[in-house]
Amino acid sequence: xxxxxxxxxxxxxxxxxxxxxxxxxxxxxxxxxxxxxxxxxxxxxxxxxxxxxxxxxxxxxxxxxxxxxxxxxxxxxxxxxxxxxxxxxxxxxxxxxxxxxxxxxxxxxxxxxxxxxxxxxxxxxxxxxxxxxxxxxxxxxxxxxxxxxxxxxxxxxxxxxxxxxxxxxxxxxxxxxxxxxxxxxxxxxxxxxxxxxxxxxxxxxxxxxxxxxxxxxxxxxxxxxxxxxxxxxxxxxxxxxxxxxxxxxxxxxxxxxxxxxxxxxxxxxxxxxxxxxxxxxxxxxxxxxxxxxxxxxxxxxxxxxxxxxxxxxxxxxxxxxxxx
Length: 324
Fold this sequence. Notes:
It contains twelve helices and nine strands. By secondary structure, it is an alpha/beta fold. Helix 6 links the parallel strand 6 and strand 7.
């Protein structure tokens, strides 16, 4: 069984930031290039048979102007019939896509709009995706997404995905059911780091729900866990021995710690003490560095599933406190 640092050590674990030179300029340029393309958010009514919800099949322009899919679900009649509502922009875990609207009923059932961003190039049996990643890898990679283009920050897969996450917030704001001043970003694992990125880079976010964030304190994670998907990085470096430092320099541009210190909105974090996939210490590190008001829930006997439905209870509590 995987075990990380003792709990007392975890509570004070605050590693140095792995911030590369020019980090802010890199991300300003990246987001500005994406905004050169019209957002062109499109919401097409979708008959999901959900009588109490308005459901929309979404497309918008993400990185490079590439079209990204999604879902928007709102309580019935929200656009124009009642005042606009808070919205939860939902990001997804590794290896899955937007699936079907029936997977995303929690937030509209609680009275909020939800905007689900599909994950480019990813799909799974339980959560199929609908968005291609039209950019070919700029070099060799091991199977999976984590090493695609990893020798150059400009070519790296997560540059595209992080940019999509920011543009998803901008797209959600354009729908009449959404109050543009009451948007919360949320996600688990890969979705957790996307929420942290959006909280740092997308202006006007109201709050963040960050569970077990992936790609955070990356240098430590790849040293202490053999679990996927960090194992993709270890396998790549095992073969590409001459490029290890180059790989690490690229990853520093995408480490969640560098976004945590730039995010100032209220946030609810969670981590689990038996999680080998996103090691516990990396979640504590993100919480320690996070610059805004923050709360951390620790699930003592759980792994990567974290709090499960009990975490959802805490999510609803957090939003009620945030929005009244």
